[in-house]
Amino acid sequence: MTIKIFAVLGDFYHDEAMCRxxxxxxxxxxxxxxxxxxxxxxxxxxxxxxNPDLVILYKLNKLNPTDPQTPVWMGEEEAxxxxxxxxxxxxxxxxxxxMASYEVKTYINMLKGYFQYHPEMSSITYIANPQxxxxxxxxxxxxxDEHYFIDCDVNNTNVFLRSExxxxxxxxxxxxxxxxxxxxxxxxxxxxxxxLHPTTLNLVADSIKWCVTK
Length: 214
Description:
28% of the residues lie in helices and 32% in strands. It is an alpha/beta fold. The protein has a single domain (3-212), classed as Class I glutamine amidotransferase (GATase) domain (Rossmann fold), CATH 3.40.50. A hairpin with a 2-residue loop joins strand 9 (158-165) and strand 10 (168-178). It is globular. The mean pLDDT is 97.
């Protein structure tokens, strides 16, 4: 059975081609029949009627973050439709910027967390929770990355990955059920080198496996 994935990737700070390269590399690693369709954010809401098995979002909400008056693509109406899609059995994977600049209550409540800020890029160590159902419990690796600091409702989700740098510690990966559906959030990574690090790729592959396991 083919697993259908909609992917909305790329924004002002993250080149779409870079994001696609990383996801394409991950999909090739997976021993599953997967069809990824790359779509524009403006088409996503209507296309959710097709009930894809998974939606992957690697995109800021602000369309031009350097402009204080910039529009956003997701408001409460769009977030409500997305939330309903997940509640009815869909799956949502918020990857890196897919949780940034989304000041939308319904979306934040669904994710149970949101991006707060990041310092200058630095060396970051990512460490798996010893008891998790997503990835290798002994996993630990280091990359140069944007250290996303996250406000996460850790009491109502399952943290599977944490991050540490000279700037502090934060949650880096978490997942939970949402209605009949699933939600997973994952903060690495910002650059092509960090995205294509073998362990980052393995983590994304493990995350997708969790997302599509019913």
